[in-house]
Write a structure and sequence with these properties.
With 184 residues, this protein is mainly α. The protein has 6 helices and 2 strands. The chain has 3 domains: 42 residues; 64 residues, Dna Ligase, domain 1, CATH 3.30.1490; 44 residues. Helices cover 59% and strands 7% of the residues.
């Protein structure tokens, strides 16, 4: 009987050893799967950067304090609803070799992480200069559109109504309204 007991002990020991190995292998496969899924998701968020909203989105005045590091900026951006994942932002900041400058920036929910990083990579003076250039460009486009559009100038008439005059004035064009000429 002791030989039967010894055989049963060896068999049960071998079965236990095999079971433990199967459980360890299953746990490793599961961990590998979960890790691969997480890495894919993180890589997707870093390199295929989807904005939070479709264009035009909405503008958010975002303030970066003097002593803020990338982690604090990323957490604040996520809290403001500008980015989806603060960890992906910090990794992208390192990959793109960005220096974060303090200041107030106008960011938009339709911007990608890379566009936000480029915006805050500027010094505040450079950023304000860029905004002024964009505003001047938009004003020039508006002026060009106003002079090229015959509806703005009253469909070929020399006289325009008050709404058209306001649009022309915004573009820097001086016009005479119907009311000013005695109402045609």
């Amino acid at each position: 009987m002791s030989s039967e007991s010894s055989v049963l002990d060896r068999i049960s020991g071998a079965m236990l050893e095999i079971s433990v190995r199967v459980i360890i292998i299953a746990a490793m496969v599961l961990a590998l799967f979960v890790g691969a899924k997480y890495c894919f998701s993180m890589g997707f968020q870093i390199f295929y950067q989807e904005p939070m909203e479709e264009a035009p989105g909405h503008d958010v005045d975002f303030v970066i304090k003097e002593d803020a590091d990338a982690a604090a900026v990323a957490a604040a951006l996520e809290e403001e609803g500008l980015i989806k994942n603060d960890h992906a932002f910090m990794i992208a900041e390192k990959l793109y070799n960005i220096n974060i400058y303090p200041g107030t920036y106008q960011l938009n929910t339709s911007m990608t992480v890379k566009e936000m990083l480029e915006a805050i990579n500027l010094t505040e003076d450079e950023y304000e200069e860029r905004l002024a250039e964009e505003a001047a460009s938009a004003a020039a486009e508006s002026e060009a559109a106003a002079t090229a559009d015959p509806d703005v100038l009253g469909g070929g008439s020399d006289l325009v109504d008050e709404g058209q005059a306001e649009a022309a004035a915004a573009a820097g064009i001086q016009v005479e309204t119907e009311a000013a000429s005695g109402g045609a």
